[in-house]
Write a structure and sequence with these properties.
- The chain contains 6 helices and 8 strands, in the order H-H-H-H-E-E-H-E-H-E-E-E-E-E.
């Protein structure tokens, strides 16, 4: 009986030790505080902070943490606006022309300084610009495009009567056919001042030696 009792006592001791070890299972920080819903990342990798992109600007300071520069619209886009304007003129389409002007656009002519929209509406009503349809009244290769840094290099006889900011573009259009019969429809040249508006240009001023009859 003593032998059986001793063996039974050994079983009880082993069971007790097993329960005690299970109750004292070690907890490691990497598993004890792990959030199952948190995103996984490698040890030592810092989670990047989401940053809001700043608005595009023409220039910035080198101390800025994040800088997004805005590329200026290409001068070709300014020339395209001038082509559309001249096309609207010979097709007598003032509604298309109006879309190409800034809200405060004006013209400088021999008649003075006037709002561009009302001036061209009157001009298209008084003169027949459809007479120039089919005429090569200007040549695309003759278009001259200028930015601010170009003006200082112009010779005195080619100076443009305006000043440009860094973003503005001027387009000079020599007119090859300015008359229809005895009626003068254009001056010898037109100079357009264009302002960038987003990714396009709008006409803010037109210079022309012209007077309505």
């Amino acid at each position: 009986m003593r032998h059986a009792s001793s063996r039974f006592s050994g079983v009880l001791v082993a069971a007790a030790l097993s329960l005690d070890c299970a109750a004292r299972t070690p907890h490691f920080p990497t598993t004890d505080h792990f959030d199952p819903d948190a995103p996984r990342r490698a040890p030592g990798v810092i989670e990047p902070r989401a940053a809001l992109a700043p608005k595009p600007a023409r220039s910035g300071d080198s101390d800025d943490e994040l800088l997004l520069l805005r590329a200026p619209p290409a001068p070709e886009l300014a020339r395209q606006v001038v082509r559309e304007f001249l096309r609207a003129a010979v097709n007598e389409a003032p509604e298309r022309m109006d879309l190409l002007f800034t809200p405060t656009a004006f013209v400088d002519t021999t008649s003075g300084h006037q709002p561009a929209r009302s001036f061209w509406h009157s001009r298209l009503s008084a003169l027949d610009y459809t007479e120039l349809r089919g005429e090569l009244f200007y040549r695309d290769s003759d278009l001259e495009t200028y930015q601010a840094e170009d003006l200082a290099r112009l010779p005195a006889n080619r100076r443009i009567p305006l000043e440009l900011t860094a973003d503005e573009v001027a387009v000079r259009v020599p007119i090859r056919v300015s008359w229809a019969g005895r009626t003068r429809l254009f001056g010898d040249e037109l100079v357009f001042l264009l302002d960038p508006t987003g990714s396009r240009f709008e006409i803010s001023e037109i210079f022309e030696d012209f007077r309505l009859p």
